[in-house]
Amino acid sequence: MDPSVLRSVLERSPDLVMLSEFKTGRVLYLNPAGVRLVGLADLADACSRCTADFVTEAGAAFNAELEAAVATSGDWSGFSEINHFGTGEAIPVTISVFVLHRTEEGPAVIVTTARDYRDSRRQERRLQQALEAAAYRAREQQSLAALSQLAVSADLDTVLSAATAAASAMVGMECSSIARYDANADTLAVVAYSGQPPRPQSLPCGAGSQAGYAWSTGSVVVSRNRASETRFATTGMAARGLKSGVSMPIGESLAWGVLTAHSSKVREYSARDLAFLRSVSSVVSAAIRRIELETRLRHQSLHDPLTGLPNRVLAFQRIEEALDRAREFGTRFALLLIDLDDFKTINDSLGHTAGDAALAGLAQRLAAVVRPSDTVARLGCDEFVVVCVDIDNSEAAIEIVRRINTAITDGHKGNSAAFSASIGVALSDTSSTPDDLIRRADQAMYNAKALGPGQYSVYEHA
Q1: What span, in angstroms and rounded, lies between the C-alpha atoms of 209 and 213?
Q2: Side by side, which strands form the sheet with 375-378?
Q3: Which of 6, 97, 352, 426 has the most CB atoms in a 10 Å sphere around its CB?
Q4: 190: which strand partners?
Q5: Which of 367, 361, 377 is nearest to 413 (CA)?
Q6: Quick one: which of 119, 113, 192 has its CA closest to 150?
């Protein structure tokens, strides 16, 4: 082959190609790409040096391995590091060395090719960053999916605990909390917490704390460095060794509460960090709406819409609970069945609006005169029941009956919608069932009606 062709290949090669003496390291040739890569003036500049001048201290660590491999097998390849003579930059390279000419004494001339690895390293870094970002997104999606699953089925405490744990883990924070406004104390009560102790019990509102400031302003609050913070007091953060943090309101318009994540380091918070915390806040907000709706629906299903009292379903539940309690502790309770006397005449003469108002007012008075442990419920149109726990005898039950009759009478003074009530009383025993007690109280109530309006009667066993 024409030597000029080989020379053209060497001079056009994008990689460094060097010929050198194996024993002395004297450079015999360096192609133009190599001259540019290491920042030399020209070929003459290169040939005035030896190969040891080209490698960094880190690159020289491979010399013994390289020389041994070339001497025995005739070639070596791997990673190394060479100098840029102009800037002093250490250039990572992939390198291959092989023997070009050998004498009886061993390798005489070797060829070294080196490829600049900086672009590859940058590409590797970009690839690594992309892989890390993809892995983060996968973890983020898994975390939010798990939290979202809880948000549609779990109780509020479970959702809040999972939310703070997710916030700490995904954003790399020492602690996270969720605080809810307590109107009685005018503070933010910490209702969930994950991370390093101690757990705060409450946080000041307004400018008294980061969470308080976020709650009062309804905005996301990022504090990168506690030392330079002027918007709110940081004494609480300082006492717990926290230097930065993010507070995210939970809920729309007037915030339900605040999610806060804190770090013991001064740090920046990326858009990715804020987006994740915002997603956590949104999931928690959705869970709260779901739980509040379920609570309203449950309340509606167990309460009378006109009076707000427990309805028949809840009344029977309370009777069952009272029976269980009586059996467990060896006590008794009383069931009072209240039937309004001739209430139909009020509806007929004054109208159903007046009748409804009378029933609602009666419900309030009944609830006011019984004990806090008792239950007043509406069974039907003009029929009410009172479950009185821990009643040992009929005299104690009759005392409550008298208070009820007084409340009914006093409530109608000067009122055209006046009425009275007949009340039947039944006391539980060890064999009682809810149906037994209702039947006995109903029989006693009819006995009371037979005595005239506004009377009561106690069921007596045959």
Answers
A1: 6
A2: 375-378, 383-388, 334-340, 421-427, 456-458
A3: 426
A4: 179
A5: 361
A6: 192
Nearest CA among 229, 241, 221, 231 for reference residue 175? 241
Sign of the four-CA dihedral 76, 81, 84, 88: negative
Handedness of CA 256, 261, 266, 269 (dihedral sign): negative
Query: Which tens digit of pLDDT belongs to each residue from 256-279?
Result: 999 999 999 999 999 989 999 999
Domains and CATH numbers, the chain: 3-116 (3.30.450.20), 137-298 (3.30.450.40), 312-458 (3.30.70.270)
Residue with tokens 């005739």: 74
Give the number of other CB atoms < 10 A from CB of residue 114.
Answer: 24
Considering only CA atoms, give the Rg of the chain.
43
3 state SS of 413: coil
Phi and psi angles of residue 174, each rounded to the nearest 5 degrees, phi first? -75, -30
Q: Give the Cα separation of 326 and 81 in Å (integer).
A: 87
Distances (CA, A) of 33 to 9, 85, 97, 215, 428: 11, 14, 17, 63, 104
Closest CA to 162 of 310, 287, 57, 12: 287
Q: Do 256 and 241 meet the contact criterion of CB atoms below 8 Å apart?
A: no
Q: By the 8 A CB rule, do 33 and 15 touch?
A: yes
Q: What is the pTM of this model?
A: 0.64
Give the tens place of pLDDT for each residue, 127-152.
787 777 777 788 888 888 999 999 99
CA separation for the pair 93, 174 (Å, rounded): 41
Contact between 27 and 42 under an 8 Å Cβ cutoff? The reply is no
Query: Read out DSSP for 234-277?
Result: -HHHHHTT--EEEEEEESSSS-SEEEEEEESS-----HHHHHHH
| Cβ contact 399:370 at 8 Å | no
